[in-house]
Design a protein that fits this description.
The chain is built from 13 helices and 11 strands. By secondary structure, the chain is an alpha+beta fold.
Length: 378
């Protein structure tokens, strides 16, 4: 029941019914279809690309009448008269109006169905010549039955044809970038034609660009908050080192589960930063308090790691057990929530080990007798 919702979301993102799409913009529809077929043939050879399909725009049978001006001159008939006769006979032409109150209705006349239903009947339409002779369209026009446009897609007042595809078994960004490189190398577009790669890939690029700005700003804000708490650059940087090492567990979890990096996993890393900061603050603050009470640096680090193990582990277990169902889900909607949960679960497990073992060791290495401790600061 949720498939129509997914289809509508994909269409809203890419503009076509598909997860990913390529739009070829140009003026000639036949040229667009030709280039679309060339691109499809190139992309078939790229690993991970599935569900390729072209949204065809050619296929509507059209009866095209090309006026032979030499023949029309021979009979003394104007091209405009020929066009007017075809319009009236086949499409109909308004000759008057009927008024009903304030409403107006056109009175349209045209040939009856038996005289305009086939190509032969259309070519037999008669046009009066100045000499009084009635000349058929077959004597004045070259008639051809050709495939014309069945649909014409427009975007920003430009015609385009769409190619839909999806990615299976590979990361989205790497697959699409390989496809872009291959298409750019093997398919030459006419002058004035251009390609646009849309859908989830375009959304991912925008999101990655935002993350490239958000992550450094987040780290800077965390550092400033830590500095206001400890009034020490050293302890602030030590906690940030714990934050920097926390993604190791998330990256390892993504690798072991075969999950590719996405915007959802990127948001998971941001959430993991916050938990790592919390753990680091708890650990460093408690070790400083033990040192202030008279313990040596080594004893304070060991005692702090042992006593803070349980509260840190409880924090990890609550978050891990809460997100474990989402990390193991494969149903509808799991594409967005699963990478987020996997990153946090894997990152928290790794962060527990690093916080209890690595952070106290780094604390002992960085600690100096001149450090400002809570009581000394007060």
């Amino acid at each position: 029941f949720s498939q129509p919702i997914a289809d509508n979301m994909e269409e809203a993102v890419s503009g076509v019914k598909g997860e990913l799409a390529i739009k070829i913009f140009g003026s000639d529809l036949k040229q667009l279809e030709q280039k679309a077929d060339e691109i499809v043939n190139v992309m078939k050879a790229i690993p991970g690309v599935e569900d390729l399909g072209v949204f065809r725009v050619i296929g509507q049978p059209n009866v095209n009448l090309f006026v032979d001006r030499a023949k029309a001159d021979r009979y003394g008939i104007n091209v405009a008269d020929i066009q007017d006769a075809i319009e009236t006979a086949v499409g109909g032409k308004a000759v008057s109006q009927i008024l009903q109150g304030e409403r107006r209705f056109d009175v349209v006349v045209r040939y009856q169905e038996p005289y305009r239903g086939t190509v032969d009947e259309i070519t037999n339409i008669r046009i009066p010549a100045p000499s009084g002779e009635r000349v058929s369209l077959a004597q004045l026009c070259d008639v051809k039955l050709e495939d014309g446009a069945s649909l014409i897609y427009h975007e920003n007042n430009s015609r385009y044809i769409a190619i839909k595809y999806s990615v299976r078994g590979r990361d989205l960004g790497g697959t699409v970038e390989q496809a872009i490189a291959s298409v750019r190398k093997q398919v030459k577009l006419p002058e004035g034609y251009r390609l646009v790669w849309t859908g989830e890939y375009e959304s991912q690029k925008r999101a990655n660009a935002r993350l490239a700005v958000i992550v450094p700003i987040t780290v800077l804000i965390i550092f400033l908050i830590l500095f206001t708490v400890f009034n020490s650059v050293k302890w602030s940087l030590l906690i940030l080192m714990n934050v920097a090492m926390a993604p190791v567990g998330g990256i390892l979890a993504l690798f072991l589960t075969g999950t590719h990096f996405s915007v959802s996993s990127g948001v998971g890393f941001l959430a993991l930063f916050g938990v790592s900061v919390q753990i680091g603050v708890i650990m460093i603050e408690y070790i400083n308090q033990l040192r202030a009470s008279g313990l040596s640096v080594v004893d304070a680090a060991i005692e702090g790691a042992v006593r803070r193990l349980r509260p840190i582990m409880m924090t990890m277990l609550v978050a891990t057990l809460g997100l474990l169902p989402a990390a193991m889900s494969h149903g509808i909607g799991s594409d967005s929530q699963r990478p987020f949960a996997i990153v946090i679960v894997g990152g928290l497990m790794a962060s527990l080990i690093m916080s209890v073992i690595l952070m106290p060791a780094l604390y002992v290495w960085l600690a100096r007798p001149s450090d400002r401790l809570p009581e000394a600061a007060g």
